[in-house]
Amino acid sequence: MPRKIRELIADLERAGFKDRGGKGSHRNFTHPAMQQIVTISGKNGDDALPYQEKAVKKALDLTKGQK
Questions:
Q1: Residue 47 located in a structural domain
Q2: For the segment 30-60, what is each residue's pLDDT rounded down to a tens digit?
Q3: I want to staple 17 with a disulfide (CB 3.0 to 4.6 A). Which of 6, 9, 29, 34 is the partner?
Q4: How far is CA 62 from CA 7, 17, 27, 38, in A?
């Protein structure tokens, strides 16, 4: 069963990412140790798509241990 969008957002926020807003259902997350922006789209209760889970995992791996 796929994870929910709210779970991906919680993982990002726990790792030190900040939501800088976005348009519509899109939310952009930034981290001081990373120049890339992680964009998550969809409502909190929606199932996360595979590419969203992959993007979050990659971002968390890149910032591991840095807050």
A1: no
A2: 999 888 899 999 999 999 999 999 999 999 9
A3: 29
A4: 19, 12, 19, 12
CB atoms within 10 A of CB 42: 17
Alpha helices (H) along 15-62 = 50-62
Q: Which domain holds residue 17?
A: 1-34
**Local structure of 37: helix, strand or coil:** strand
DSSP codes, 15-42? TT-EE---STTEEEEEETTEEEEEEEES
pTM of the model: 0.90
Task: Say how many domains are in the chain.
Answer: 1
Residue 40's CB: how many other CB atoms inside 10 A? 22
Q: Is 39:27 a contact under the CB 8 Å cutoff?
A: yes
* Inside any domain, residue 2: yes
d(CA 44, CA 34): 24
